[in-house]
């Protein structure tokens, strides 16, 4: 069942979204060569607790995964792209890090992700991140009232293909609101003018992700971390978006980064 939100409810989601956007920007800044992933995780735990927010990841137990997720972030490095389990790993020069988080505040949830490069970037990694950000911007632009869900999926896939990347259809975006994962599923590939109608009040997480040289994935033994099947690098971008009578509204917009490093400006920060 899909729940359409009122303008007031979207405003309450935007409160959670603002916090998510601000914390993701903060975490992107502290991610540096020599930083342990667990230090980033514990920094986020402190900030979430201080805000009185609730992590949507803690104790999350979907059909995949091995046991409940006992972290507040997904931290995916290099060939890991989704659901990266924070662990004792020290970031190295040139690592590509994707940070994904979702929190609830006063019963309303927002979800977002950003990919950054630690240290000196490889131009191919910059291109990969840029592709996810441009695809995210295209998906957001396609979330117009009266349009179709397939418009979003087709826009994302068109960008991925234009950059030379294959597009995985297994994991994509999702509805969001009172909980982190609601209907509908928002695929990263599809046909324009097909699928459910995009009516005002629909709130979704749009999240394109690409691997450099494959669309196939594999799982780590932890049951959570998803990697490119061929070991190629990966990137992931995501925003929570509301469909409104005036057009799409990004609820997890991030403050501009202090230093350009691939930037997330293509997706409206």
From TrEMBL:
Entries under SUPFAM superfamilies matching the protein: Creatinase/aminopeptidase
GO molecular function: initiator methionyl aminopeptidase activity
Cofactor note text: Binds 2 divalent metal cations per subunit. Has a high-affinity and a low affinity metal-binding site. The true nature of the physiological cofactor is under debate. The enzyme is active with cobalt, zinc, manganese or divalent iron ions. Most likely, methionine aminopeptidases function as mononuclear Fe(2+)-metalloproteases under physiological conditions, and the catalytically relevant metal-binding site has been assigned to the histidine-containing high-affinity site.
CDD domains: MetAP1 (cd01086)
UniProt catalytic activity: Release of N-terminal amino acids, preferentially methionine, from peptides and arylamides
Alphabetized InterPro entries for the sequence: Creatinase/aminopeptidase-like (IPR036005), Pept_M24 (IPR000994), Pept_M24_MAP (IPR001714), Pept_M24A_MAP1 (IPR002467)
UniProt domain Peptidase M24: residue ranges: 12-244
Annotated residues for binding of substrate: 83, 181
UniProt cofactor(s): Co(2+); Zn(2+); Mn(2+); Fe(2+)
Stretches the record annotates as Disordered: 230-269
Binding site for a divalent metal cation 2: 111, 174, 207, 238
Enzyme Commission number(s): 3.4.11.18
Binding site for a divalent metal cation 1: 100, 111, 238
Family under the similarity heading: Belongs to the peptidase M24A family. Methionine aminopeptidase type 1 subfamily.
HAMAP family, sorted: MetAP_1 (MF_01974)
Assembly mode: Monomer.
Function: Removes the N-terminal methionine from nascent proteins. The N-terminal methionine is often cleaved when the second residue in the primary sequence is small and uncharged (Met-Ala-, Cys, Gly, Pro, Ser, Thr, or Val). Requires deformylation of the N(alpha)-formylated initiator methionine before it can be hydrolyzed.
Protein name: Methionine aminopeptidase
Lineage of the species this protein comes from: Bacteria, Bacillati, Actinomycetota, Actinomycetes, Micromonosporales
Gene: map
């Amino acid at each position: 069942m899909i729940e359409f939100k009122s303008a007031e409810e979207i405003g309450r989601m935007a409160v959670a979204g603002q916090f998510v956007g601000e914390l993701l920007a903060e975490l992107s800044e502290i991610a540096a060569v020599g930083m342990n992933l667990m230090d980033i995780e514990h920094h986020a735990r402190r900030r979430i607790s201080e805000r009185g927010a609730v992590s949507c990841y803690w104790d999350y137990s979907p059909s995949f995964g091995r046991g409940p997720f006992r972290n507040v972030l997904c931290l995916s490095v290099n060939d890991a792209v989704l659901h990266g389990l924070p662990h004792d790993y020290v970031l190295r020069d040139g690592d590509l890090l994707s940070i994904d988080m979702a929190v609830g505040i006063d019963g309303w949830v927002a979800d977002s992700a950003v990919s950054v490069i630690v240290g000196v970037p490889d131009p191919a990694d910059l291109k990969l991140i840029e592709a996810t950000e441009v695809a995210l911007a295209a998906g957001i632009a396609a979330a117009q009232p009266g349009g179709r869900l397939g418009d979003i999926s087709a826009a994302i896939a068109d960008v991925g293909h234009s950059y030379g990347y294959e597009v995985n259809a297994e994991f994509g975006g999702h509805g969001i609101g009172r909980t982190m994962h609601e209907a509908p599923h928002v695929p990263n590939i599809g046909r324009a003018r097909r699928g459910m109608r995009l009516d005002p009040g629909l709130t979704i997480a749009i999240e394109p992700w690409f691997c450099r040289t494959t669309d196939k994935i594999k799982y780590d033994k932890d049951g959570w971390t998803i990697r490119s099947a061929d070991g190629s690098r990966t990137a992931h971008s995501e925003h929570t978006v509301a469909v409104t009578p005036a057009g799409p509204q990004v609820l997890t917009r991030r403050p501009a980064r202090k230093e350009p490093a691939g930037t997330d400006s293509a997706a409206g920060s």
